[in-house]
């Protein structure tokens, strides 16, 4: 629970950029990771693009083991993508094309309500890479801020996550479950070379975005499923410069839960029912993204 509150002591909003909506993006990608690979391979002989300033996600700080990065593969990716010949614009000029494709898949209203479409491909790649880490910076997420605020009940060290808090996620769980896998397949097949280029620019030459996507999904699927009220505590955020009104944030009182990655924390925080529903959906999409029957080696 890394998000902080402004100095007026209002409760923080750990879900400011709702992870569930990012899961929707994972589902869109993972639903169809069987297109675009050979087209991109044909372009690898071209000069590499100029690197962007975005760096790989931060290293673990609280003992949360990140999903390991796939090792560079001399013989190719672990989960390769089948061929696609769809022409694409350069990554730096791809926003309009990506925005139009998302509108066709999800509807323009949903895109406007939920997504940050500027630099969308790079945002998705950075978020997928960071979800298994201790922090996933909201400034890089491809989603709009979540309405309403994080809810807890109780006082002092006796606070727990309010059971009503999970209701905030339910509409997005339903949204994730409504994504058409066949239409998502066409989208990912067309856009995969852009995701791969953005992943290499992030600092992973010789590695493959689809492999990282599978690792991130597996990491989310391994999130614990605690039952009963989850205790939280309000913690002051220490900074280099003393503040008249210090910033605060909620943390899990259980040190094992607090040591989870950013992605796993939010899986837990969305409530047991929603977590299990999302895991069921993620398993379906992982079967497609990692299936050898759907990839040409």
Can you put this structure into words, describing what you see?
It is built from eleven helices and four strands; from the N terminus they run H-H-H-H-H-E-E-H-H-H-E-E-H-H-H. It starts with 18 loop residues before the first helix and ends in an 8-residue tail after the last helix. It is mainly α and 297 residues long. It has one domain (19-147, 167-225, 270-294). Helix 1 (19-30) crosses helix 7 (181-201). A two-stranded antiparallel sheet has the order 1-2.
Compile the SSE list and pairings.
Layout lengths: L18 H12 L6 H6 L52 H12 L1 H7 L5 H11 L21 E2 L6 E2 L8 H9 L2 H21 L7 H13 L10 E5 L11 E5 L2 H4 L3 H8 L2 H18 L8
Antiparallel strand pairs: 1-2, 3-4
Helix pairs in contact: 1-6, 1-7, 1-11, 3-4, 3-7, 5-7, 6-11, 8-11
Q: Report the principal-axis shape.
A: globular
Biggest sheet strand line-up: 1-2
Please outline the major beta sheet.
2 strands, antiparallel
| Number of separate domains | 1
Structural class: mainly alpha
Give the DSSP E fraction (strand runs of 2 or more residues). Answer: under 5%
The poorly predicted ranges are 1-20, 28-64, 292-297
Number of helices: 11
Topology pattern, helix = H, strand = E: HHHHHEEHHHEEHHH
Radius of gyration: 19 Å
Mean pLDDT over the residues: 74
Total number of β-strand segments? 4
Separation, N- and C-terminal Cα atoms: 40 Å
Q: How much helix is in the residues?
A: 40-55%
């Amino acid at each position: 629970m890394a998000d902080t509150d402004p100095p007026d002591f209002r409760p923080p909003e750990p879900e400011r950029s709702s992870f569930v909506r990012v899961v929707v993006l994972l589902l869109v990608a993972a639903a169809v990771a069987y297109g675009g690979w050979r087209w991109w391979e044909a372009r690898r002989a071209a000069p590499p693009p100029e690197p962007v300033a975005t760096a790989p996600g931060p290293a673990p700080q609280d003992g949360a083991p990140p999903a390991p990065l796939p090792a560079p593969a001399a013989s190719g990716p672990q989960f390769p993508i089948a061929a696609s010949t769809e022409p694409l614009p350069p990554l730096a000029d791809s926003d309009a094309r990506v925005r139009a494709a998302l509108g066709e898949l999800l509807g323009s209203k949903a895109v406007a309500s939920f997504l940050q479409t500027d630099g969308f491909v790079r945002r998705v790649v950075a978020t997928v890479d960071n979800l298994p880490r201790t922090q996933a910076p909201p400034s890089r997420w491809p989603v709009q801020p979540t309405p309403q605020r994080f809810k807890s009940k109780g006082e002092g060290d006796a606070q727990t996550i309010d059971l009503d808090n999970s209701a905030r996620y339910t509409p997005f769980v339903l949204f994730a479950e409504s994504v058409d896998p066949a239409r998502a397949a066409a989208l990912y097949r067309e856009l995969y070379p852009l995701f791969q280029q953005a992943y290499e620019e992030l600092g992973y030459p010789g590695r493959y975005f689809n492999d990282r996507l599978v690792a991130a999904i597996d990491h989310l699927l391994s999130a614990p499923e605690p039952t009963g009220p989850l205790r939280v505590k309000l913690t002051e955020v220490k900074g280099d410069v003393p503040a008249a009104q210090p910033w605060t944030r909620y943390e899990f009182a259980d040190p094992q839960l607090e040591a989870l990655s950013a992605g796993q924390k939010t899986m837990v925080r969305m409530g047991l029912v929603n977590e299990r529903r999302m895991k069921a959906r993620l398993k379906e999409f992982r079967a497609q993204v990692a299936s050898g029957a759907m990839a040409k080696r």
